[in-house]
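tool=predict chain=A
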Amino acid sequence: MFRIIYNEIRKDFVQYLAVTFIAICAFKILMTIHYPNVDTLVDAAFGVVEGRPHWLAYQNRLLGPYTIFSISELFGLSLKTSWLIYTATALQIFCVLFFWILRREHVSIRDSLSYLITIIFSFLALQHSWFYAWDSIDFIIFTLFAYGIFKAYSVRFFLFLFIIGILNRESALFIALYLIFDAFILPKGLFSIRLHNPRSLVVGSTLLTGGVIYTQYIRNLLFISKSDLTGGGHDAEHELIGNHIYLFSNIKDLAINLTNSNFIVSVFIITTFLYFIMSHRRMGDRQLKALIVALAMFANILIFGIVNETRMHLILLPFFMFLWISLNDKAFGSKVS
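tool=predict ok
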C-alpha cells in the first residue's frame, strides 16, 4: 500500500504539495495549543521507555514513545526535538493517507481537500491539554481501520493492522472486536444476523483474547513505578484493562455541558451520532458495521474514559468522515456496499 501511495504522490506532486501545506498549518496550530506543555508531554512518552509512566495503564503503549526515543538516539537529538519531529511526521502521514484514500475513491480534488480541511479542523477542535505520543499513531491506525471496514478488506489486512495497533495502544482490541462482528452479516437489519465467515470469528476471538493477555503481561513486565509527576510508586488503580468506571458521571457531564463552555463536546457527540442513527436506513452492510463499531468505541469512552477529555474522541473522526462522505458523495458512496 505504501508503495502505491508513494507512486501516487510522485504523479500528483502539486496536489500533495497542497496537502503538505495543510499539514504544516495544522502542526503550527497544534503547537500553539501544546507547546507550553510540551515538556510534560515528552516526559509522558519517555516515562514509558523508562518503565516509569504517568500511570500503569500507559506502560503497554510502546510504539510512539520508543519511536521518539529511537529518533533521539539515531540522530543525536533531544527528546523534545524528537517529539516535535515525530508529531509533525505523524500529522503529515495522516494528511497524505486521508487525501490519498479519497482520491483513490474518485472523490474530486476540490472535495478531497475540503474533507481533509474538515477533519483537520475537527482534530484541532478536539484537542485537550494532553496529547500523547500514542494519540498520533491511533489517528492513523483508525483511519486505516475505518477505511478497511468500508472496503471489506480481508482478515489478513486487519490482522496486520492489529499487530501494529496493539504495540501502540490497547485500543487495537476494537479491531479484534470488529473481526468477531464481521463474521456475521446483516442482510435485513440487526434481527436477522447470520454467521457467514467463521474464519473471521476465530481470528477475532483469538486476537481479542491474546490482545488482553499481551496488554496485561507487558504492563506488569515493564512497569517499575509511576512517574514522580503522578506521585511515584505502584498504581493499583489501573491494574485492569479497563480503568475506573465513569459511566454515570460522564452521562451527567454530557447533560451539564449544555450549560457551560464544554457544550461543543455534547453537541458534537450527540448530534453526530443522532444523524447517523437516523440515516441507518440509507446504509449498506459496511456502513452499518462502521457505525456500530463507532458506537462501541464511544460506549467504551463513556464507561471507562472521561467524556470531556476530548482527545479520546479523535479515533471517532475517521469513522464519522467516511460515513458522512459515503452517504453524501456519490463518487465515494458508490464504492460502499
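The mean pLDDT is 89. The longest strand covers residues 184-185.
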